[in-house]
């Protein structure tokens, strides 16, 4: 069990207890990457997916459910624990694609854990956190992008079932996945007519149309899905009918903070790799770091990483304290994505030809960084949302 200072009177954040707990979690996560991930990551990149055995190994270490309640099979931590785990894994060499594949439960499960029936929790949440199942979240549709309220996949009630028809695209872990937490339209137009259904792989009419090849996130399998007269039991409805948009929206803050951690996490790792390279690589009889222009680039990379990290940590602190941080999460994601874009670019530049080679770690981070300003809400969409929330738009 992890300590929650908001509910445990004996847990004072000012004491060393929570700090020691977070440090132990970081050490466990880092060692897991060094032992279970780093030696195999390029092979998984080439294969296009992460093995299911890695999910079971991560579950045995208590990593998959760190921020889920013990009542649903998690470790009882909060967002701060999740951030500490992610930071440590990136620092040890995990890629953004690896993290998206291994922790897809972070977007597939929260709605079920918070609003699903006890049966849905037992059938999908607990086994996924135990590494036995892999889930995915089916929201994005062809031509739909970030417009969640415009979802066209329909679910028509027919007795004890819904009949689902439509398509989803860019769905993470959908090739390997055992179920899809699917956004469907059960009511009228707009956000008020959406619901969430858990659709099991193997249900007649649900097919993986194709696995999608991507610029980055190579080890994270991504797919297009089609739903043709898929009969889903009414008992697989998550929460209330037509309340799906609100269930999705309440998880946006955590998802966007997670992507911010992805961004500054791979930026920090790229900076560390580049600083070491610049100390070791000699040109014209001296190490690269002896050149002022190189040192100044490293300092600028450091500045961008630290600004993104510090701001994201503050947003996390406020979220854990119960504050509404919808706009701030949008800004944290953008700040971190800007840092990742700039830092990973300079990392490749300073590595020179070695950085351009497929299989080098900075090349992987450079490619992976490009999805982060798009996933979880494109930067342009989130900036406009922040403008409205901050009172800058009519």
TrEMBL record:
According to its UniProt record, which cofactors does this protein need? FAD
Q: Which UniProt keywords apply?
A: FAD, Flavoprotein, Oxidoreductase
Residue span, Acyl-CoA dehydrogenase/oxidase C-terminal domain: 242-388
Q: Where is the Acyl-CoA dehydrogenase/oxidase N-terminal domain?
A: 20-132
Pfam families, A to Z: Acyl-CoA_dh_1, Acyl-CoA_dh_M, Acyl-CoA_dh_N
Q: Which residues cross the membrane?
A: none
Q: Which domain of life is it from?
A: Bacteria
Q: This protein is called what? A: Acyl-CoA dehydrogenase family protein
Q: Which species is this UniProt entry from?
A: Nocardioides kribbensis
């Amino acid at each position: 069990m992890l300590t929650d200072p908001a509910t445990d009177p004996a847990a004072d954040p000012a004491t060393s207890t929570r700090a020691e707990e977070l440090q132990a979690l970081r050490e466990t996560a880092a060692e897991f990457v060094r032992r279970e991930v780093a030696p195999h990551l390029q092979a998984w990149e080439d294969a296009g997916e992460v093995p299911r055995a890695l999910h079971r190994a991560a579950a045995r270490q208590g990593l998959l459910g760190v921020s889920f309640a013990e009542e649903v099979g998690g470790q009882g931590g909060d967002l701060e624990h999740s951030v500490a785990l992610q930071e440590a894994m990136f620092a040890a060499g995990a890629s953004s694609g690896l993290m998206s594949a291994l922790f897809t439960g972070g977007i597939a499960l929260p709605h079920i854990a918070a609003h699903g029936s006890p049966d849905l929790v037992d059938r999908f949440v607990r086994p996924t956190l135990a590494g036995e199942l892999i889930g995915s979240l089916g929201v994005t549709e062809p031509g739909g992008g970030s417009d969640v309220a415009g979802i066209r996949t329909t679910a028509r009630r027919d007795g004890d079932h819904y009949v689902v028809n439509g398509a989803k695209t860019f769905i993470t872990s959908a090739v390997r996945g055992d179920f899809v937490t699917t956004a469907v339209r059960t009511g009228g137009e707009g956000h008020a007519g959406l619901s969430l259904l858990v659709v099991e792989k193997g249900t007649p009419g649900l097919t993986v149309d194709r696995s999608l090849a991507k610029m980055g996130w190579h080890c994270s399998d991504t797919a297009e899905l089609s739903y043709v007269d898929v009969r889903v039991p009414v008992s697989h409805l998550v929460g209330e009918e037509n309340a799906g948009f609100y269930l999705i929206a309440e998880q946006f803050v955590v998802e966007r903070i997670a992507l911010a951690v992805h961004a500054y996490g791979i930026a920090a790792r790229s900076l560390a790799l580049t600083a070491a390279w610049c100390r070791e690589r000699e040109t014209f009889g001296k190490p690269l770091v002896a050149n002022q222009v190189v040192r100044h680039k490293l300092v600028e990379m450091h500045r961008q990483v630290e600004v993104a990290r510090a701001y994201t940590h503050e947003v996390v602190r406020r979220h854990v304290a119960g504050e509404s941080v919808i706009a701030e999460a949008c800004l944290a994601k953008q700040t971190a994505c800007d840092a990742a874009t700039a830092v990973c670019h300079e990392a490749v530049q300073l590595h020179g030809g070695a950085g351009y080679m497929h299989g080098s770690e900075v090349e992987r981070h450079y490619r992976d960084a490009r999805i982060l300003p798009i996933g979880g809400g494109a930067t342009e969409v989130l900036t406009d949302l922040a403008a409205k929330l901050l009172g800058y738009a009519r």
